[in-house]
Amino acid sequence: MLTYPPTTMHFRTGDSPPTGRVRGSTARAARTAVTVALTAVLAFALGTPTASAHSSLVSSSPEDGATVEEQPGTVELVFNENVQDQPDFTQMAVLDADENEFHTADPVVDGNRVRQDVSELPDGDYTISYRIVSADGHPVSGTIEFTMATGMSGDVANGDEAETASEQASGDGDDSAAAIWSGIVIAVLAGLALIVGRSRRRLRESSEDGPTSDDERDR
């Protein structure tokens, strides 16, 4: 059997390497670049929900900057996700330009909606101030501004204060009438007492003069 010595290939400096090796290196580099790109995209995709998980206001009634011509009765805020319904987590206030309060009840949470009843609002500028806690425990706060233009004017802080002022005015009127009638009764009684006193004095004087006249006749 014939034995052949191993064949050795020699390349001079400047010679090009075999084409197979070049293609293998290029493929590995391409796979590495694709892997890095996919890893970056995946990391960004996983990180995006975490950054945007907080609640945000998507609409309100009245709308921010709106001019309202009818009494709303209730104000409402709508968020992009549910709001935590826990005591003291949700705070709302409806205030006029002088910071008088017009809300008549605590806010009510219904999923991603928060409502609050308000009294009648005289014409003027109002602000809805709110603070809620999102599903992930992050607090969210802000303000909504609107203007009432219903033709209703008034300088009362709310309906309860107006009713209280009316009751106080009625009570003051009753007290004044009672004082007048009391004065009239006292004046009448004083006049009667004066008349009775004069009558008694005249009777005494008449009785004293009577016997003296009879004695003189007997003489």
UniProtKB/TrEMBL annotation:
Coiled coil ranges: none
Listed SUPFAM superfamilies: E set domains
Annotated region (Disordered), positions in chain: 1-23, 154-174, 200-219
Transmembrane portions of the chain: 178-197
Location (main, coarse): other
Keywords in alphabetical order: Copper, Membrane, Metal-binding, Signal, Transmembrane, Transmembrane helix
Record domain CopC: where: 54-147
Keyword Transmembrane attributed: yes
Family matches, as InterPro entries: CopC/D, CopC_dom, Cu-Rt/internalin_Ig-like, Ig_E-set
Entry annotated with the keyword Magnesium: no
UniProt xrefs under Pfam families: CopC (PF04234)
GO biological process, one term: response to copper ion
Name of the protein in question: Copper resistance protein CopC
Species assigned in the record: Phytoactinopolyspora halotolerans
